[in-house]
User: Fold this.
Amino acid sequence: VHLKLTIEYDGTDFSGSQLQAEGRGRTVQGEIEAALGRLAGEPVRVALAGRTDSGVHAIGQVASLDFPERARLERPVGVMRALNGLLPADVAVTAAEVAPDGFHARFSARKRAYRYLIWSAPAPRPLLSRYSLHVRRKLDLAAMAEAVSLIEGTHDLAAFAGQAMGVPQESETEDRPSTVRTVYAARLKRLDARASFWAWDAPECQETSNEGTLLAIDLVANAFLPQMVRTIVGTVLEVGYEKMEAQAIPAVIQSRDRSQAGPTARPHGLCLIWVEYPEF
Amino acid sequence: VHLKLTIEYDGTDFSGSQLQAEGRGRTVQGEIEAALGRLAGEPVRVALAGRTDSGVHAIGQVASLDFPERARLERPVGVMRALNGLLPADVAVTAAEVAPDGFHARFSARKRAYRYLIWSAPAPRPLLSRYSLHVRRKLDLAAMAEAVSLIEGTHDLAAFAGQAMGVPQESETEDRPSTVRTVYAARLKRLDARASFWAWDAPECQETSNEGTLLAIDLVANAFLPQMVRTIVGTVLEVGYEKMEAQAIPAVIQSRDRSQAGPTARPHGLCLIWVEYPEF
Assistant:
């Protein structure tokens, strides 16, 4: 039976999502395939929607796979429960459904959404530090918001592609992979104080005093180049530091030159949020 | 100069907040005192508002201390910045202010607030797993809410005190420590979907499909007995599993017998949120 699985993971202790060429390093794909193999009694391969770097998290990663009928776990929820009993604590299957034979987690995907979290404050936040980049310097948020919005549209985004362009790409269809991507939405958001599991709104409240702003840079695109979100975030931060003008973003894009963009932001602030497919 | 510091930590890799009798184990107090000692060039001792067990987190822990004048970091914010430069990533000073000489983080505290997070769902959530207890079994939330509310008031809460009662208590004033505590508020809350750094409310949204409910058990009291929150949570979960009636809670309290209460819930769902002091 052909299955679609939704997968959540804390990327901190993973060497990325994809099996390494040398088979070394602990990967999300490796853990899922190992659990599936134990369940099925034979090797099962999965395809993942998005390739995430070492340290990058996912709340809505998607996998497609053929699960052997004879394993007698035809109900998708049964596969989900059994897999979660075998998987380590930092990765889990959060939904499972039967998919049509032609469904492929990577090639069928129409849109992907990523969020990068930035904790902008004088003091760090240990309870957010696995999932957000701490920035001590004051940021020009208006300029950052403008810079982010200039990423929207269909562009050749080679300037934001990491060194890994030799590796096969999402949505690659030719020998020479295209670096044109359509960015449907690019936004800087201030997450409100409620965006915390520990926010306290009871009447006897004394709010905790860690003063700062939690920012999200949200990107939705048909597909992403390697390290594209991290490079965009690194560039937008240069604008926030007033080292670059927001209005310079179109020229950076036009240059198709990675050296015109900012540094690659660290991976731990990034999370793959959802992947969209045609309905089936 | 006498200082009040607010401290946040991820308790996962700590052997609790307090220095161990044998000086063994990595503790929050140990890390803070080590950083202060390096800054001051002499030993500095701190007092902490709440004793948290191994694995318990804090967003609003409070420390009081005397910082030697000659260290020339009189401005509290200077002490905060310098300490954060020395502290490891899982603990930070998030606020600092000058306090009157009589201020003591533990003995001056009037109220403490703790939150215990429960992820109630068929599938685990790896991105919450450091900070919440995953419960697969279906829970009777109405009965749990009633059970929690019955903890409010001034009671002898010996039935909810862990084995560590030989250790000096918060608010201990006599040789034989009292187990009477006043619980100002005890509530079960459903945290809404926005209570996540990754909640996505944009129009092109496809919400992630991890179906479940994030619950908080919130307790505000003048002081807490050892493992009191965790034992209350373990007891309330027995009610949620329909192994115990909510109406049995007053009898459990009256028994003063630990064996009448439920098991001690695991520490990682617990967080010290805030501590209240008289204004100064």
